[in-house]
Request: fold
Amino acid sequence: MSVVAPPVAATITAPVTAAPAVAATAINTPKIKNFTLCDFRAFAGPEPVTFKLDGKNLLIYGENGAGKSSVFHGLDEFFSAAQPNAQARKKRLAELENIFPNPGKGKVSIEVTFEGDAASVRWDDQGHPADTKGYPAQPADARIVNGAYRKAALDYRALLDTNYRHGNGAVNLFDVFVNVLLRDYPAAHNGKQERLFDLWRRMQPLPQMNRMTDADKTNIQALAKSFNDGMAEAIEALWPKANAILKDLKWEDVELSSLEFASVRFNWDRLRKNRCYLGCEITPKLKFREKDLPTPQTFLNEARLSALALAIYFGGRQICAETLQADTPRLIILDDVLIGLDQSNRMPVLRMLDQHFADWQVVLLTHDRVWYEMARFHLADRADWGAVEMFEEKQPDGTPMPITGVVRPFVKPTSIDAIAANIATARKFHGVNEYPAAAVHARVAFELSLKKLCERKSIPVRFKADPRELNTEDLLSAIETWLNSSKGSQFKQHVEQDIKNVKQARKVVLNQFSHSTPVNLADVEVKSAIDAVEALQKAFKDHIPTKEAAVP
Reply:
């Protein structure tokens, strides 16, 4: 239903009950294969740095100062609808160039290759032709243009736009809705579909009053009506989505009850200072445990405000996604947007992305190592996720690079499966005769294998008030008890020998003193231990089916 907002404020009231969330149906949309930065922000040239996504989602851990946010801004700027022409795009790229001098420095560039394409799409300052809208395409690439409107690129500052930056007064989300949240929602204008962002841009700047013709006035009124109709329609569709996502994020005590939209209209005043658009206001109305909240930013805690912001943003992406073309990339880039949530409230965000945005490509960045390892642990069985770790480049002695030098991020691709990654690292250290280091990584892989099986099969483990006191003996004992029970007996024959092998390896290698210098580790003992851990993990995966692979 299309709702036309009258000149005075109109409240579009949410349905009494929100429709249940339905998992997205995967469709074949363009996915990024490689993403390359050179001389861009933290990525000092001349050597380019390439992130290999291979069409997967990507989890990125980055230390503070390691260039994590440069990855976010690189993708956000590449897929950008903000610069209206090629010259503006070139100027914007120059503003983002790395500032440190470097002999033989490379030219600033961002490059993206999509799956199935041999050629990349490149944005640089070398004078490559661009289409009339200024996107880095030769010839014009509809995937970049459409992807710029359709993306969801959010950092923590974007969440602030929905709450903290409004002081103690009413929240006004008009700019957020037009420029970000609903920028690509289609509105009917003169028999064609136009994006709300484009309609709003066409409404600026206004002709001077003494030069404004009747035709100009008619055009402005027509644009404003189309804009108002489209915005009202989008707002009406938004809440069922936002409220459903709020419930999925486990914040059922917060409800978006309405969005008050004061329709945009032009003030035809003779005084220049009074000539402007009025009614540029979109005010969310909230209920918290059935009580109205006139100023939610002064009452709700940070976790609820963050969840509310995420629900509004992702609800907007959902209603706009319903109009996506088949050749449009669906890209979600999230940079530390979860820092306002504690660890227990972060996992539902992964589940929400998996349930509602299965056909989108997600790049999730964080500086929180604990959260990174938790997410990695829960995503380990997923073939559609990859992982990368980023560190600030250091000198050979381990100290940071001097402040006057060129600092480049050190990018370390790794496996989303921490068990496989630690086994690979153990083999690497074993190969260079670093036996204590190899033993430590083998032990980590062993512990993670046991924890994963206990979690996925809900195996009860002996309680410890301090979880740091939980050891492999407790985990292994719990698993063996489960294998001897009615629930696990059917799997016992498949893993019994592998458990015996790791028990043997625990006597020397897979124990907490395996890194200590008095322990004499032999080559064959370390290799046998690594082999035993890898075989045990494979036996668990092959013979003990887990719960559904989706994030719990």
